[in-house]
UniProtKB/TrEMBL annotation:
One Pfam family cited in the UniProt record for this chain: ABC_tran
Domain ABC transporter: residue ranges: 12-244
The protein's name in its UniProt record: ABC transporter ATP-binding protein
Record GO terms (molecular function): ATP binding
InterPro entries: AAA+_ATPase (IPR003593), ABC_transporter-like_ATP-bd (IPR003439), ABC_transpr_LolD-like (IPR015854), P-loop_NTPase (IPR027417)
Record keywords, A-Z: ATP-binding, Nucleotide-binding
Keyword Membrane among UniProt keywords: no
Top-level taxon of origin: Bacteria
């Protein structure tokens, strides 16, 4: 059976995924379905232990669900063997963890291009210029990586994902380590820029402020989806709205 399906376009679809670990009494995830469209922001929220990290790892291809499928831009991730899944993850999925995973010994410019360099690819010059401008990274290029603030680090990590032309951006705890105002600013920037680059964005957070910035919110508890809601169309906060420009 082919692992690709042209019908799903650039969307990300987790369909009925469950994850069980060893002899744990209850599954870490139970029958979770999530759809993330290109340029749309989905927030997965829930208290500690609700399954956010396990869901992130399943979407990132780091964990194989016990049941269900994950399809990313037409490729069924869950049907790939280990080697193909690793390659897919490395080249097509951007993940920004609580630590942005930048190498302190490299400057910002080298960090930005590292995944492309490792894959023997070159950055698309137009995309590079757009990413530098839209994510306010240009002025950071000569900076030493350890001197970056958390917000700056995150912008570099997002620009790196855009340059990779990834099919999905997953951000764990996007406001961790940021004060409330910087956190809001950062969420607006993330959401608007992913809309502009047509990138499906999935945020994972226990912070209710994160949900307020998403087009769609999925609430988890004990590994199950307990609530799903879309942003009201008339709230004046659509991705293109100036209300969301940082
Ligand atoms: N590798 C693992 N082996 C066994 N159980 C695990 C493993 N990873 C996660 N779990 C369990 O799965 C459940 C969900 O954990 P998860 O880390 O996804 O929660 P979370 O919502 O991300 O919490 P937090 O906000 O604290 O990071 C928990 O009961 C956890 O103990």
């Amino acid at each position: 059976m082919s692992a690709t399906c042209p019908m799903t376009g650039g969307a990300v679809i987790a369909d009925g995924i469950s994850k069980e670990f060893g002899t744990a009494r209850r599954p870490a995830l139970h029958d979770v379905t999530l759809r993330a469209a290109p340029g749309r922001c989905t927030a997965v929220v829930g208290p500690a232990g609700s399954g956010k990290s396990v869901l992130l790892r399943c979407l990132a291809g780091l964990e194989r669900p016990t049941r269900g499928t994950v399809r990313i831009a037409g490729t069924e991730l869950t049907a790939l063997d280990e080697a193909a899944r690793t390659e897919f993850r490395r080249t097509r999925i951007g993940v920004v963890y609580r630590q942005a995973n930048l190498l302190p010994q490299l400057d910002v410019a080298d960090n930005l291009l590292l995944p492309l360099d490792t894959a023997g690819r070159r950055a698309d010059p137009d995309l590079l210029q757009r990413a530098l401008d839209l994510l306010d990274v240009r002025e950071l290029l000569d900076r030493a990586t350890p001197a970056l603030t958390r917000a700056e680090e995150l912008r570099v990590a997002v620009a790196r994902t855009v340059l990779q032309r990834a099919d999905l951006l997953l951000v764990d705890d996007p406001t961790a380590g940021l004060d409330a105002i910087t956190g809001r600013h950062h969420l607006r920037l993330l959401r608007r820029r992913c809309a502009e680059f047509g990138l499906p964005l999935v945020l994972f957070s226990a912070d209710p402020a994160t949900a307020a910035h998403a087009d769609r919110v999925i609430a988890l508890q004990d590994g199950r989806v307990v609530q799903e809601r879309d942003r009201p169309a008339d709230c004046g906060c659509e991705p293109g709205s100036t209300e969301h420009i940082a």
